[in-house]
Amino acid sequence: xQTIGAFYLRNNGGFVCAPAAxxxxxxxNFSTTSNGGHIALGxxxxxxxxxxxxxxxxxxxxxIWIEAGHDRTGSPFFLYDSTSNLYAEYDITGTTLQxxxxxxxxxxx
Length: 109
Prior knowledge:
With 109 residues, this protein is an all-beta fold. It has strands spanning 3-4, 6-13, 17-24, 30-32, 44-47, 59-66, 72-73, 78-80, 86-94, 99-108.
């Protein structure tokens, strides 16, 4: 499983959204973090799962909260490492009820 230290989400949809992370903790429990703040149309933000309570070594997946719409997830799962300079980059497009998440690859700072 690819190791990353963050997600980058760019909002190209017609809505306000916020990044978060789904993760599996060391006890095998599935959880979702708090979100990383609202992203307006045309903006992007880097989200570090460790800043929201995810311990190193946990499998993580991008979770996208969409205001007044259907929340989405990004694929695939990654292994979280707070010391990694790699991040998974995503774009989201569409509308609140019909959005599409685009995985743009793993990038380096």
